[in-house]
């Protein structure tokens, strides 16, 4: 398949990694539909090729269903759910408030899986459902603690994604849980290891190399397999 025939839906692309992924897929000739939940001037300003822009808040099931219906009958080689939050990340779980911990679980674990379910029938044969996880979602690598609610939400996402993949075991697409590296974004902060372009370019390379493979893999932006 020629790259210009490939299409991606990037969910949560107003800034940070979603915006960087949109730019990177477009630069490689993919057709991109990118979503934001509000005004997204940086997304709208992308040149020389612009993405198609849609609105969706992944925590709103009705909005997700509307997006799916609006995009009918389009299918995508890659659906990449990037959106996530890290509210209260620096507070140990018992010290934070319940509502914040539950909101992080909702946005980072429940909503991406519900989005994936809504769009499972829109992944083209040989394509991928990619969910933005984190190395902090690895239970076995958690020896130092910190970022407690956030870690738990990404560990939950990983587990739910394996269930999603098992549930769709006969479907003609694969599932990838992606760790982007520690990246300089609003969430990652200015001290992070790498810039958005390095991470996004790496993730697109990993995704392109993974097309046609089924099952559920937990990979980083260099293609390294991570331990659960
Ligand atoms: N940066 C890192 O080092 C790092 C490392 C590991 C994993 N990650 C993961 O990578 C993803 C992107 O992170 P980032 O660093 O780019 O963060 P960011 O700069 O804070 O951007 C977060 C993005 O998610 C969107 N979003 C949040 N809640 C949403 C919702 N309910 N519906 C739709 N969109 C929503 C935001 O939209 P608004 O502009 O409307 O707020 C924004 O586009 C997250 O899942 C994060 O957990 C990041």
TrEMBL record:
Q: Under which name does UniProt file this protein?
A: Short-chain dehydrogenase
Q: Which domain of life is it from?
A: Bacteria
Among the Pfam families in the record, one is adh_short_C2
InterPro entries in the record: NAD(P)-bd_dom_sf, SDR_enzymes, SDR_fam
Species name for this entry? Methylobacterium indicum
Q: Which PANTHER family match?
A: SHORT CHAIN DEHYDROGENASE (PTHR45458:SF1), SHORT-CHAIN DEHYDROGENASE/REDUCTASE SDR (PTHR45458)
